[in-house]
Amino acid sequence: MIPRIHRQGSNTLGLLHYLYGKGTHEEHTDPHLVASFDHLAPGPGRDPSVTKKDLQRLLDQPLHLLDADQRSAKHVWHCSVRAAPDDPILTDEQWAAIARRMVAATGIDPGDGAGCRWAAVRHADDHIHLIATLVREDGRRPDHHRSGKRAQAEARRIEADYGLRRVTPGNGTAARRPTSAERHKAQRRGRRRTAREELRETVRQAVAGATDEAEFFNRLAAAGLLIRHRVAPSGDLLGYTVALPGDHNQHHEPVFYAGSTLAPDLSLPRIRARFDAAGPTSAPDHADRQGRSPQRPAPSTARRAATHAAWAALLVLDRGDDGAAAAQVAATGEVLDALAMTSALHTRQQLREAAWTFERASRSHTRAEFRHAQALRRAARDLRHSGPALGRGEDGATTAMLIDTLFFLVTATAHWHARRHHAQQAEAAHRAATHLRAAYAAAAEEPLARLREQGQRLARPVRDQAAALLHTATPQLAEQILREPGWPALAATLDDARKAGHDPGALLTEAAAHRELHTAHSLSDTLTWRLHHLTGLPADTMPTTHPKAPAAPVQQARPARSRPPAHPKTPGHSR
Question: What is the rounded average pLDDT of the residues 237-266?
Answer without folding.
Answer: 93
